[in-house]
Amino acid sequence: MHLRSLIVGVCLVFATSSCAVNVNVNDTQLLGTSETDQDRILDVLMTQQEAWNAGDIDGFMSGYWVSPELRFASGGTVTKGWQATRDRYHENYSDRRAMGHLTFADFDITMLESDVAVVHGAWTLDRSIDRASGLFTLIFRNIDGDWKIVSDTTTSAD
Fold first, then answer.
1. What does DSSP assign to residue 64?
2. 71 is in which domain, residue-wise?
3. pTM of the model
4. Measured between alpha carbons, how far apart are the two ends of the chain, in Å?
5. Does 24 fall in a domain?
């Protein structure tokens, strides 16, 4: 009887060791885990970075709150409103050469409330004519289930 149990046990070990589970990012909901707010905020930033590097300013703008109350401060000026911010980006980055390659880094995300976060980070813009870099401070709000930038203060190290 002992030998029989040993053989069954060994067979089970071999049978289960050959099984593998492939977990995709989208499977987290099925597994009962969920993406954190910080993860969702990082997703917004990575989507913006990807859109910028694809030459898609409007895709980049999808990370911002579509509101006349959006605040964007950079270069010593403050721009109010989503449309005015979009127009400013299109004016200052009129083609792919001007847009270059954007990299975000050094994220520090602090949840201020369940629906408000502040994000500090760094940016680098590599272009054929120069390399610009600086820091940013973003205020995110969870609006209707989506994390959006409601205030952006971007500085240049140059």
1. B
2. 35-156
3. 0.78
4. 79
5. no
In one letter, which amino acid is 72? F
CA 91 – CA 96 distance, rounded (Å): 12
Q: Report if residue 4 sits inside a domain.
A: no
**Could you give the number of structural domains in the chain?**
1
CATH code for the domain in which residue 61 is found: 3.10.450.50
For residue 65, count CB atoms less than 10 angstroms from its CB and return exposed for 0-12, middle for 13-18, buried for 19 or more: buried
**CA 25 to centroid of chain Cα atoms:** 15
- Is residue 97 included in any domain, yes or no? yes
Q: Where are the alpha helices (DSSP H) in the chain?
A: 2-17, 37-53, 57-61, 82-92, 96-99
- Please classify residue 56 by burial: count the beta carbons closer than 10 Å to its beta carbon, then call 0-12 exposed, 13-18 middle and 19+ buried: middle
Q: Let me know if residue 84 belongs to a domain.
A: yes
Question: What are the pLDDT digits (tens) for 13-71?
Answer: 344 344 333 334 444 444 556 889 999 999 999 999 999 999 999 999 999 999 999 99
Q: Compute CA distances 56 → 9, 17, 60, 78, 148, whole Å.
A: 58, 47, 6, 23, 18
Query: Which amino acid does the sequence have at 117?
Result: A
- Report yes or no: 154 and 130 within 8 Å, Cβ to Cβ: no
Q: How many residues does the chain have?
A: 158
Instruction: Determine the distance from the C-alpha atom of residue 65 to the mean position of all C-alpha atoms in its chain, rounded to a whole number.
Output: 15
